[in-house]
Amino acid sequence: MTDARARLLEHLRSRATTLGPAEIRARVRAAAAELDATLAGLTEAEARRAAAHGEWSIAQVVDHLAQTMIRSADELRHLLAGRRPPAPAVYDGLVSGAALWVPWAELVDGVRSASAELDALLGAAAALEPSPSGTVKTILVVSRPGADGQPVPDLFAAELDWKAYALVQRLHLLDHRTQIRTLRAALG
Questions:
Q1: Residue 153: strand, helix, or coil
Q2: Torsional sign, CA 164, 92, 97, 62
Q3: Is the separation of the CB atoms in 78 and 136 below 8 Å?
Q4: Is the pTM of this model over 0.85?
Q5: How far apart are CA 126 and CA 129, in angstroms?
Q6: What value, to the nearest 5°, has the Cα angle with vertex 166 and ends 142 and 18?
Q7: What residue spans define the domains of the chain?
Q8: How do residues 35-67 score in pLDDT, each as one tens digit?
Q9: Residue 176: exposure state from Cβ atoms within 10 A (0-12, 13-18, ≥19)
């Protein structure tokens, strides 16, 4: 296991141990609000324009978030019920293709709806005693230096409990918030 992988897993597991359900929910909510603020004011044309060849447009990032968050909410629902979610895991790069034709406002509504579903589940988690056990196979991404010294994604699978899994959703939102900010800056 690389140092970056070990650091991420240690961070997730440590925070999952020290934070209660309400604190985890608040952190995920804050990340969703940051994403929402980053999307504010974008036009349909801006959302669909790719900044560089091979990069996702903002619309594709939003579609990806909606698709992964609704799947993640389903996995969290299983975890909170004390069941292992059925395979396959929520893989990286998951998109529906809707970014190419669904109106921008509908894409944004989709990510907000998925976020609300995740939030409702996290709200219900606070009432569960004892805390559900069990894990889910989760695909994680860290950066590592490539042969040319530039960062490249390093994907790996890990088994996480519901709290660490919820914290991954927070990190996922924050990573894509930053990606959208970078795309917006590149688009002018």
A1: strand
A2: positive
A3: yes
A4: yes
A5: 8
A6: 95
A7: 20-132+162-187
A8: 999 999 999 999 999 877 778 999 999 999 999
A9: buried
